[in-house]
Design goal:
By secondary structure, the protein is mostly helical. The chain has helices at about 5-20, 30-50, 65-75, 75-95, 105-125, 150-170, 190-200, 205-210, 210-220, 240-250, 255-260, 265-270, 275-295, 300-305, and strands spanning about 135, 145-150. It has 3 domains: about 1-55, no CATH class; about 65-230, no CATH class; about 235-310, no CATH class. The longest helix is centred in the first third of the chain and has 22 residues, at about 75-95. Residues about 235-270 have low confidence and may be disordered. Keywords: Nucleus. Its main location: nucleus. One of its GO terms (molecular function) is DNA-binding transcription factor activity.
Length: about 300
């Protein structure tokens, strides 16, 4: 996973072919099921990074894709895996049709609306164990909310939910009336702050290795454009100079002053730039994940620095 995405997609292709040949999917039993979902999470993030579709089509992933049905069965892991599936459907849709605002036909808007409704249905049908055990909204002294979960799978499922919501909102095609209970799900900033809060509040290494991309997605919201043109339309950029700074900071065990600024400079920056605190905390969390787990996140830290003009 530390190698380029094209290289690890090459290795995934053999796994994908074997799983499909054996008809093993997320509804299989025992260790096969666990292996499938481990593969699926890697597959979807590889697809997201490369802006391609998943190697295994999403219609193969589960025998029963009904949100109410899976919720009724009461298996928490199965329910949380549904969020992974819906996110994969979003990634595949955007890889095929793009994410640019404007210029889309009614079929595009209808597809976005359908995917959005799936996400909100997933949120609405969540069993109690999938909801936060404790949630403290962000106060003036805290940028991100405290969001604690009792289960690792709940962290994963809600992370996919917020990530997918941001991607759909960035298309500009989500109907505002699609969720009339609360305005929060219609706000990309709310979803981005939830992602930051979930990652920081739950020091779960098993989940942290899946959070480099969600934190990057959150970071794209904290730009003037809201990141709509960032994820699916720009070409790769040369990041060598910034990457060397990030790698050096990680190797030295730095408090990432060179990446994000210390607490004193943060106060000054907050008065000068919108979302400055959010940006700093996201960078700090990415470095923390790499330092504690060994899972490389510095590529995404570099991408965010360049996106925010901090290179």
């Amino acid at each position: 996973m530390a190698s380029g995405v094209d290289e690890w997609r090459r290795h995934l292709k053999g796994c994908a072919a074997h799983l499909q040949a054996q008809k093993w999917n997320g509804s299989s039993k025992g260790i096969v099921k666990s292996c499938f979902w481990a593969f699926a999470r890697i597959d979807v993030w590889a697809a997201f990074i490369s802006r391609k579709t998943t190697l295994i089509p999403t219609n193969f992933w589960l025998d029963d894709m009904s949100i109410p049905s899976v919720a009724t069965r009461g298996d928490i892991d199965d329910y949380c895996n549904l969020a992974n599936l819906i996110f994969a459907e979003i990634v595949n849709f955007l890889a095929t049709h793009g994410q640019d605002k404007g210029g889309h036909d009614s079929a595009y808007a209808a597809s976005v609306s359908l995917l959005w409704q799936k996400l909100q249905d997933w949120r609405g049908y969540r069993p109690q164990e999938v909801k936060p055990l404790l949630r403290n909204p962000a106060a003036s002294s805290k940028v991100f909310p405290v969001v604690l979960y009792s289960r690792s799978s709940s962290i994963c499922g809600n992370t996919f939910y917020h990530s997918g919501s941001i991607l759909l909102l960035q298309t500009g095609e989500v109907p505002l009336q699609a969720h009339n209970i609360s305005s929060e799900p219609n706000s990309p900033v709310w979803h981005a702050r939830e992602l930051g809060g979930i990652s920081i509040s739950n020091p779960s290494h098993a989940n942290w290795v899946n959070q480099a991309q969600p934190l990057y997605i959150a970071g794209t919201v904290f730009t003037p454009s809201g990141g709509a043109l960032t994820l699916w339309t720009h070409d790769s950029i040369n990041r060598q100079d910034v990457q060397s700074q990030v790698d050096l900071s990680v190797q030295r065990g730095s408090t990432i002053n060179s990446l994000a600024g210390d607490d004193a400079s943060l106060e000054t920056w907050e008065g000068e730039e919108r979302y400055a605190a959010e940006k700093v905390l996201l960078l700090k969390q990415l470095v923390r994940i790499e330092r504690e787990t060994g899972w490389k996140t510095s590529d995404r830290a570099v991408d965010l620095r360049l996106l925010w003009g901090m290179g």
